[in-house]
Write a structure and sequence with these properties.
The complex is a heterotetramer, with two copies of chain A and two copies of chain B. Chain A is an alpha+beta fold. Chain A folds into three domains: about 80 residues, Butyryl-Coa Dehydrogenase, subunit A, domain 1 (Orthogonal Bundle); about 110 residues, Butyryl-CoA Dehydrogenase, subunit A, domain 2 (Beta Barrel), CATH 2.40.110; about 130 residues, Butyryl-CoA Dehydrogenase, subunit A, domain 3 (Up-down Bundle), CATH 1.20.140.10. Chain A has 13 helices and ten strands. In chain A, a hairpin with a 2-residue loop joins strand 9 and strand 10. Chain A starts with 6 loop residues before the first helix and ends with a helix. The relative contact order of chain A is 0.10. In chain B, the strands form three sheets. A four-stranded mixed sheet of chain B has the order 1-4-5-8, covered by helices on one side. Chain B has a four-stranded antiparallel sheet with strand order 2-3-7-6, with no helix packed on it. In chain B, strands 9-10 form a two-stranded antiparallel ribbon. In chain B, a hairpin with a 5-residue loop joins strand 6 and strand 7. The model of chain B has no long low-confidence stretch (mean pLDDT about 95). Classes of the chains: A alpha+beta, B alpha+beta. Chains in contact: A-B, A-C, A-D, B-C, B-D, C-D. At the A-B interface, strand 9, helix 9, helix 10, helix 12 and helix 13 of A face strand 3, strand 6, strand 9, helix 9 and helix 10 of B.
């Protein structure tokens, strides 16, 4: 038992810190710290900085231009990025599609798509969810009908994150309507410039445009854009979902959020003293910090086991639940700390310019973030689904 | 002991509910929200015509109500319909302040208010006051026969649409003294007043207001010089009863939307309301809703009591509703899933009303501290 | 709307208070306040004092010797009894069986049994639950087979509260083994002196002997002890369960418990100041008091509606859940307040003599009560069953 | 970074687990509990033979362990089996105090302790100390070459079975000063010592002890005169790590019993573990259990750090375990239903161990206050 990083791990951390000190643009880290959107340009700029260093694909093998870091290194990198308020890596091409193509794609697909993910030429988005199939993915209804050497796609996807920036989409489509739920599904790569695709914005309850509906009307996709075998898409989808689960605990986000709440609570005055000294607020803050300290160790335990080659089991479902509860609790504390300043809807603050705002620093985005992050326990496999999984695995033999 | 509404209040409730069901559609609400002043003037006029504004004020100033249960009856309905019009600010907060002026200076304004022709805002909170009721740094200094105001007011709800502000300012004493506070009626277009308005997350508007040597005649003072603390506390008490009831109404709608959704939304081949884990969570929501209803009754029923008793029940109600409201809003979103995250679906509006209500006049912890202090006293 | 008692109600309350001041023995109220058992004798003494005043059966019609009080009066009586630390009325004969006999019993049964309930000659206990049928009452298996003008009973009942003091038991037995679950059940009155009945104690986790198993081996019960019709027992059982639900919120118990915690928190010292002044403890206390204030009003709303003739609906399930949560939270606060003195198991204190105990006043029983009252959310229709009922009624049409 | 037990600790864990599975049946536990001294001497002897007591003490006093992870490994197993023997009091609390005496006065006692021949109790808490670590009113006054003790100690665990007490008393300073505290070794049969012992709710015994001018030689002092605060804090830190781990073990068993029960108990024609509402609650228990496991690792891993860091992590762990423990104990009882209320069913014992652990060395709130204080420092 040793809770400390090894000398090699500490050296790696120092390397990451130095890189972030030197290369992370302050306009981007300011925006992230203040909860503002960095837009398409910001994401692309940060990706290209990472790519220049060779650090854009921590989980890819070296052969494809990745870092081949182990779980502990990836954790250190993510932790330091959060601490430095670096933008998150947009995951659709890098974390989700990349590993699927590496494992199940054809040589041609790998050669064509992987470099373009790294270069930023392709911005991918995800076509999984459908209206009427939220956590119940297997019930999807978007149809792909073979017509010569094309599939013809009709249907609708939803909750497509940052689809407004994307030029490619990977989709689950039903290729065999008679098969049972999870069978008869295929995994297709679709150029979003193809005629018949329409992207419609979904405005979220905090006023942001993060997600979209994507409508397909007689969209023709060449058969060579099928990944793996027809009707085997569910296998690839499950593989993708497993990979999506890295950093599922969100420890770094929570840590950065907690630091922000502490700053705010030291600034906000309550009866002439900093709010941080109020025993009730201090108790709420301490309690979530204690929960986070424990979860960070749970996270490290799983990462350490993963680095030693063990496959994560039901623990990732536990981390998803506890991790989102903690992040949401921190968002709740931030809105409490802001007092009456949680009320204004400073939508301009989210998009960049807050020069004409009269709000104290750090209060402009607290309500929007509180509401926006209610999604954490809904998307990515709702917390109810995670609990079903935990109970099934742990009680499985018995019930 | 009697928990029935009086016949008059029952009629008022019925007619208000009918009016809002007919006229206050989601489209109307969106129109109200997107207006630069944060509400729709024609809805305001109709509320006045219905007699809703008068029902919130006592008879001796021309109203026909003003008791705790009048407030709770009206605001529960406004909350159920998700109304964003500034009834609380103009009629309850400012109306109560004007009505309690012993000299009756506000009589003409109240008349206009009840008729729907006047909009008001109470400029009271400040950057450092947080939720303290008498923490006022803004100064009012005599300058001959005039008064000069210097200071800044924060998150003044309804300022952008208001004709006048009622401004609290200190004529003497330290920042949090009971003594030394006065109230002044100020035209929002007065010179020396700078206003930066912003939309509110849950609808309506609020402004940061700077008073830069704003000069008003001393006749603008409402109530006793340096002795406005009790007026302020009484008006805040009425506003808190109204806000608690409004939040209760929004909680009812959020719960109802959730139950409707669970009955229609299919997943894994059956309505999601047939899943026991979700059923038990709905049961918990319904239990909390009954608790909130009782808390509002307790607060409304003690509004006419002496201040310490009044405020203890109000603090209790507001603390309970902050907790129950958070639970219901968050559970309603979670049980809906993705659709609840969209601005388009009605639940979003109700969740915001519920959560952000906690940020007016004191959050759960502040109310708990007040309750503890008032219980010890 | 009026939250205050009427002049008549206030006068009634004064009458009850005066009675309690004059007639409630202090040894009994001391024992109740300190959480000690008052034993069979104590219960019988208090019952006979109430009976002498004609107040032993608040919910019975006058014709049978009851008070015929309305719901508000009964509430006032219960509230005042709790406040004065009077023993609770043992409910099995008075609250449970009495109303069943009055509605469904024969004239002979009414004439024979009702006066003996009041006089104390009969101490009743309840034979409902069975091992293997906890909240699922309808699955009971105790058999009653007709043999001439007797039923022959074989089977086992459990959780029979105070069965060790009882000389009569009312039982649900299965008279038609082929009928569907709730059918084929009958309601029998059984003299516990009949051969073949054995009462075995169940010791609870706090060391107390409150409940028992009752075993029946070829027990012969005269057919005239059948209540109502054969195989219709479920109807009577449901009627009884509805009546058991009076005072389901336990407002008076919670109020008395809260007062006790406050006393204890003023005595216990923390860093040289009374614990009551510690902000964290004060916050817990205030929160449960706020919850109780609201629940008391919910309770009054329902009582007021009942007094006006409305049947209580799903609200009694809500009161059961919230009421037990509040009582258990108060028990939890009491153990917290006691500090290290919650650890000793002063079992002698529960039975009467605490003269050789070195513990501060009010701390001896806190842990035992905390553990004992975990039963509140299990027995009497578990809180899970109550939530099923609430969801069924409220979501019923929709799912 | 490495979360594997060392080979030695793994072996110790295996052998202890095997021993307890074989010998520490529910019947054995009942026998231990019903003994007047609160434990079974033959079990104690066997624990000593297994080397468990020595594993809790450092090498320089003849043990072969004594690090945080030694404590957590041993106590998690003791907790899993529901052991009531006073390992924490004799070996951890008193063993650590004796081992930290710079003069090595306790060497002979430690030898006997490791061999299983000595029982000890730390007489430290008082009526007014609640959970404060250095709040001592008991006075030690010099009387020639002797020391006279006057005062009362409360809820002294294992006093009835102990050969000696280690008594904290104040030679100078005010009630809660850091300076002035000393420790004294006192024979439990000494004159002037009055002991009233009582069984504990969760097994074991504790006593109220009065020192009525008890006279001991000054050579009975352990550690520096008036300078024992750091020794006391270090021993309490070790004891808290042990207690946290023990509680974790008990939480594991309570959770396991619950899962087993849900799989076998039938209701409404199916195993109750198939009801989704109950499944989700089991999932929550399992999540809390992982949190508790990590909290124990954090506390054990920081036991050798400097006091402020050490105590911050311990306070965090104990706060979390108090909350998670309450949840798991109460949910285990509730999910079992009636059977959990009986003394006969094993769960009752584990629920009591979990809940009453909160009453040693500081409950959830006290630990939270400590964490806040230590985080600010």
């Amino acid at each position: 038992m040793d809770l400390n990083y090894s000398a090699e791990e500490l050296a790696f951390r120092e390397e990451v810190r130095e890189f972030l000190r030197e290369e992370l643009p302050t306009d981007l880290s300011d925006a992230v710290r203040e909860g503002r959107s960095i837009g398409k340009e910001g994401h692309e700029r940060w990706h290209s900085i990472l790519n220049a260093r060779g650090w854009l694909a921590p989980n890819w093998p070296r052969a494809y231009g990745g870092c081949a870091w182990n779980a502990v290194q990836r954790h250190i990198f993510e932790e330091e990025c959060c601490r430095a308020h670096a933008p998150r890596i947009v995951p659709f091409g890098l974390t989700m599609l990349g590993p699927v193509l590496q494992k199940f794609g054809s040589d041609a697909q790998r050669d064509y798509f992987l470099p373009r993910i790294l270069s930023g030429e392709h911005w991918w988005c995800q076509g999984y969810s459908e209206p009427g199939a939220g956590s119940d993915l297997a019930s999807l209804r978007t149809r792909a009908v073979r017509d010569g050497d094309h599939y013809v796609i009709n249907g609708q996807k939803t909750w497509t994150t940052l689809g407004q920036y994307a030029n490619w989409i990977f989709c689950l489509v039903r290729t065999d309507p008679d098969a049972k739920q999870q069978e008869g599904i295929s995994f297709l790569l679709i150029d979003m410039d193809t005629p018949g695709i329409e992207v419609r914005p979904i405005i979220l309850l905090d006023g942001t445009h993060e997600v979209n509906e994507v409508w397909f009307t007689d969209v023709r996709v060449p058969v060579e854009n099928l990944v793996g075998e027809e009707n085997q898409g569910w296998t690839y989808a499950k593989y993708l979902l497993t990979h999506e689960r890295t950093n599922i605990a969100g420890v770094g986000f929570s840590q950065a959020g907690l630091d922000a709440v502490k700053r705010l609570a030291r600034q906000q005055m309550h009866r002439g003293r900093p709010l941080a000294e109020n025993p009730h607020f201090a108790a709420r803050l301490a309690q979530v910090e204690i929960d986070l300290m424990a979860m960070a160790t749970t996270n490290l335990r799983i990462i350490s086991a993963a680095a030693a080659g063990q496959a994560p089991g039901v623990e990732s479902s536990m981390l998803k639940v506890k991790g989102t509860e903690i992040r949401q609790e921190i968002n709740d504390l931030a809105r409490r700390a802001a007092g009456a300043y949680a009320m204004p809807f400073a939508s301009e603050a989210l998009e960049g310019d807050n020069s004409n705002l009269a709000q104290p620093e750090g209060t402009a985005a607290v309500s929007a973030q509180y509401f926006n992050n209610r999604k954490l326990s809904i998307f990515g496999g709702s917390n109810e689904i995670q609990k079903n999984i935990i109970a099934k695995v742990k009680l499985g033999g018995r019930t | 002991m009697n928990f029935q509404l009086s016949e008059e209040r029952q009629m008022m409730q019925d007619s208000l509910r009918r009016f809002l069901a007919d006229r206050y559609s989601a489209a109307q609400r969106d129109e109200s929200v997107s207006n630069a002043i944060g509400f729709a003037p024609q809805i305001w006029a109709q509320l006045a015509d219905l007699g809703i504004l008068g029902a919130l004020l006592p008879e001796d100033v021309g109203g026909y109500g003003g008791k705790g249960f009048d407030l709770s009856t009206v605001f529960e309905e406004l909350g159920r319909a998700g109304v964003v019009e500034p009834v609380l600010d103009t009629a309850v907060l400012c109306g109560t302040l004007l009505a309690s002026d012993p000299q009756g200076k506000g009589a003409a304004l109240i008349e206009g208010l009840i008729a729907g022709n006047v909009q008001l805002a109470f400029a009271h909170g400040e950057v450092n006051s947080r939720y303290e009721r008498l923490w006022v740094e803004t100064r009012a200094s005599a300058y001959g026969d005039d008064i000069v105001l210097i200071g800044r007011k924060s998150v003044v709800v309804n300022a952008a649409g208001a004709d006048h502000l009622i401004v609290s300012a200190r004529e003497s004493g330290d920042t949090d003294d009971r003594e030394g506070l006065s109230l002044f009626l100020v035209d929002t277009k007065a010179e020396g007043l700078q206003m930066r308005s912003s939309a509110l997350m849950a609808g309506g508007c609020a402004a940061e207001i700077d008073f830069d040597n704003l000069r008003i005649p001393s006749s603008a003072r409402i109530g006793p010089a340096g002795g406005a603390s009790e007026m302020i506390e009484a008006a805040l008490a009425a506003a808190e009863v109204a806000l608690a009831a409004e939040t209760l109404g929004a909680m009812e709608t959020a719960t109802q939307l959730t139950m409707d959704y669970l009955g229609t939304r299919q997943q894994f081949g059956r309505p999601i309301g047939s899943f026991q884990a979700l059923q038990h969570r709905v049961a918990d929501m319904l239990i909390e809703l009954e608790q909130a209803r009782s808390a509002v009754i307790n607060a409304a029923g003690h509004l006419e009591e002496q201040p310490a008793v009044r405020d203890r029940h109000i603090a209790a109600a507001r603390n309970l509703i902050a907790r129950a409201g958070r639970k219901i809003a968050e559970e309603a979103i979670q049980l809906h899933g993705g659709i609840a995250m969209t601005a388009e679906y009605e639940l979003a509006h109700f969740a915001k009303r519920i959560i952000l209500a906690e940020h007016r006049f004191g959050d759960a912890d502040t109310q708990l501290e007040r309750f503890i202090d008032l219980s010890a006293a």
